[in-house]
Automatic annotation (TrEMBL):
GO cellular component: plasma membrane
Domain of life: Bacteria
Listed GO biological process terms: oxidative phosphorylation; proton transmembrane transport
Name of the featured protein: Cbb3-type cytochrome c oxidase subunit
Binding site for heme c 2: 186, 229, 232-233
Compartments where located: Cell inner membrane
Gene designation: ccoP
Domain annotation Cytochrome c: ranges: 130-210, 217-297
Cofactor: heme c
Length: 304
């Protein structure tokens, strides 16, 4: 990593840029001085495709000066803005500074709009058309990439429009999840369960908990093996929201349904991460987004 942080690359980029510009000037100077001896008909004697003759007319001066002006502009730009390695430019412009200035401007313009929602509870905002319109745009820009534009998720990404919540679906829990993010960790459990046959029997028992089609004989054999899972999912398989352990009795399958999917989960485990949004969104934006997400699975409550 040190190869990319030392001064060599800064010097290399600076030298390469300046050499390129000087090379363009040198090429222009050589071209301007070079004289081609013309024939009697003012051609260079070069002919292509049998009848395309190259004339010996000098390069237009306006074109040459336009080229020079472009080079001068390039040197001026590199003096004013970053472009020569670590040189920051005389104007002190930076991409980060531009972003921060734009964000500060947007915050100033949006603060009066969000001020109306500051005294409202999430349940109240969920019934406000303007708040939900803003919440929808926030969701599309920051959440839809994983949860989908309809918030119904996909394999590995929770459905936010139903009533199934890994960590709880109250406004406070949703706000906490958006702000701090979540890390879900299902450790590999095959060694604790036993043999491959035991894992298969356990998978059938897990299927039976939700009333899914299963092999009842294998499920009865796998019931005793479920004790290895009960620490997180509970003896009844209803999960534990304090740990983010899924409810195995509700027929909601985040990482795939069926014996093969359950066996893969037991054998390999799974780590899922919901990134924290507190560095990207303001507190006011998180409050509105919380109300929007809560409203997705609480249509009647939001309407009231």
């Amino acid at each position: 990593m040190s190869d990319f942080t030392n001064n060599f690359w800064s010097v290399f980029v600076t030298a390469l840029t300046l050499v390129g510009i000087v090379g363009c000037l040198l090429l222009l100077w050589i071209t301007a001085r070079k004289k081609v001896v013309a024939t009697a008909d003012n051609t260079t004697g070069h002919i292509w495709d049998e009848d395309l003759t190259e004339m010996n007319n000098p390069m237009p001066r306006w074109w040459m000066w336009l080229f020079v002006i472009t080079i001068v502009f390039g040197l001026g730009y590199l003096a004013a803005y970053p472009g020569l390695g670590k040189f920051a430019g005389q104007l002190g412009w930076s991409q980060l500074g531009e972003y921060q200035a734009e964000m500060a401007k947007a915050k100033t313009e949006l603060d009066p709009l969000y001020a109306r929602f500051s005294a409202m509870k999430p349940e109240q905002m969920a019934g406000d058309a303007q708040a939900m319109a803003i919440g929808e745009r926030l969701f599309m820009n920051n959440c839809a990439q994983c949860h989908g534009s309809d918030a119904r998720g996909s394999k590995g990404f929770p459905n936010l429009a139903d009533g199934d919540w890994l960590h709880g679906g109250t406004p406070d829990k949703i706000h906490e999840t958006i702000t701090k993010g979540r890390v879900g960790n299902m450790p590999p459990m095959a060694a604790a369960v036993g043999s491959p046959e035991d894992v298969r029997n356990l998978a059938q028992y897990v299927l039976s908990l939700s009333g899914s089609p299963h092999d009842s004989l294998r499920a009865s054999l796998g019931k005793t093996k479920f004790t290895a899972c009960a620490a997180c999912h509970g003896m009844d398989g209803k999960g534990n929201q304090a740990l983010g352990a899924p409810n195995l009795t509700d027929d909601v399958w985040l990482h795939g349904w069926g014996e093969a999917a359950i066996i893969a989960m037991v054998n390999n485990g799974k780590v899922n991460e919901m990134p924290a949004q507190e560095s990207k969104l303001t507190d006011a934006q998180i409050n509105v987004l919380t109300a929007y997400v809560w409203g997705l699975s609480n249509k009647q409550g939001a309407a009231r």
